[in-house]
Amino acid sequence: MKIRLFEKRDAETVARLFHETVHEINSRDYSSKQVKAWAPDDLHFRDWETRCSSRFTYVADDEGVIAGFGELEPDGHIDCFYSHKDYQRCGVGSQIYQAIEAKAIALGLKRLTVEASITAKPFFQRMGFAIVNEQEVICRGERFINYVMEKWL
């Protein structure tokens, strides 16, 4: 498994990974309506190319298979962070997170933040994040519970 920076050619694979993971993994903690609002079927790959290229996006590349990805914004916010449904609990997330934290330290950041889903909260707690607060957010008309979390570096 190699952790590397996102390349434009990864956009479609990353978008599909996001969609499939939300629909198959996050659906354990969120309703069908919430999942459809979170990851609609009409994904635009160009949007993902632009999005992932505009931040530090790390992908886990398992001999050509994208096993996961995570995004670090320059201010220390971790945005999307997903492991492929077939790579859950295999250490993929930990490896991506280690790359993100190393980059944050190299940038001189003092703190990382994330809005973790119910599903992702335990992972981020294992990585040393603390819950700042639980919040309710609205996405495409659906209400979601997630957790503002932080880690001081």
From TrEMBL:
Keyword set includes Acyltransferase: yes
GO molecular function: acyltransferase activity
SUPFAM superfamilies, per the entry: Acyl-CoA N-acyltransferases (Nat)
Keywords: Acyltransferase, Transferase
Assigned EC number: 2.3.1.-
InterPro entries: Acyl_CoA_acyltransferase, GNAT_dom, N-acetyltrans/Recomb-assoc
Enzyme class, UniProt record, top EC level: transferase
Domain N-acetyltransferase: 1-153
PROSITE patterns on file: GNAT
UniProt cross-references to Pfam families, sorted A to Z: Acetyltransf_10 (PF13673)
Signal sequence extent: none
Keyword Transferase: yes
PANTHER family: ACETYLTRANSFERASE, ACETYLTRANSFERASE (GNAT) FAMILY PROTEIN
Protein name according to UniProt: GNAT family N-acetyltransferase
UniProt source species: Stenomitos frigidus AS-A4
Lineage, top ranks: Bacteria, Bacillati, Cyanobacteriota, Cyanophyceae, Leptolyngbyales
